[in-house]
Design goal:
Radius of gyration: 29 Å
Strand order of the largest sheet: 4-3-2-1-9-8-7-6-5
CATH class of one domain: Mainly Beta
Structural class: alpha+beta
Number of strands: 9
CATH architecture of one domain: Beta Barrel
Distance between the termini: 58 Å
Order of helices and strands: HHEEEEEEEEEH
Largest sheet: 9 strands, antiparallel
Keywords: Lipoprotein
Strand content: 25-35%
Shape: elongated
Protein name: Lipoprotein
Helix content: 10-25%
Length: 158
């Protein structure tokens, strides 16, 4: 009896497989049309995308943008800048003003931005360990540019 059931099951499977096999040929021709494509690393941004701590080792620079619109900019050999500023967004760029000079921030991707100020362009990397809503902004250049803090490291979370 089990042999008969096994044979019937096998015949059903073979029948199903044979029924799925199609012998029709495709005679239609398809034409592929090339389309121009544009790839952009960042399509749209919000103010939140710019918030955080951004650092560079050369020149030693640290830029802080927190959720309360506080901006702090520390650079080795320059006076630090602390102020309240609103970011003006345009495409993938944000701008704010320091002493009548415009500072342009351009997001390259989620972890990198370019800062342009008075003819100087600096690429900064985002520090994933600094939280714009909770972390504090340093008050001195020595504290902001401490050795080892200009290369962001990812914290392991368990």
């Amino acid at each position: 009896m089990q042999k008969i059931r096994g044979m019937i099951g096998g015949l059903l499977l073979v029948g199903l497989l044979a029924g799925c096999h199609s012998t029709t040929s495709d005679t239609s021709s398809t034409t592929v049309q090339p389309t121009p494509s544009k790839i952009s690393a960042v399509r749209s941004v919000t103010t939140h995308d710019f918030l955080g701590r951004w650092v560079s080792t050369n020149p030693a620079t640290s830029l802080y943008l927190n959720a309360n619109h506080q901006i702090a900019w520390f650079q080795k050999g320059s006076a630090s800048i602390h102020r309240h500023a609103n970011l003006a967004l345009n495409d993938t760029k944000a701008t704010f003003t320091i002493d009548h000079d415009v500072v342009k921030l351009t997001l390259n991707n989620a972890n990198s931005l370019t800062l342009d100020y008075q003819g100087t362009s600096i690429t900064l990397i985002k520090d994933p360990n600094w939280q714009p809503n909770h972390s504090t902004i340093p008050t001195t250049t020595n504290e902001a540019l401490k050795s080892g803090t200009l290369t962001p490291t990812f914290k392991l979370s368990y």
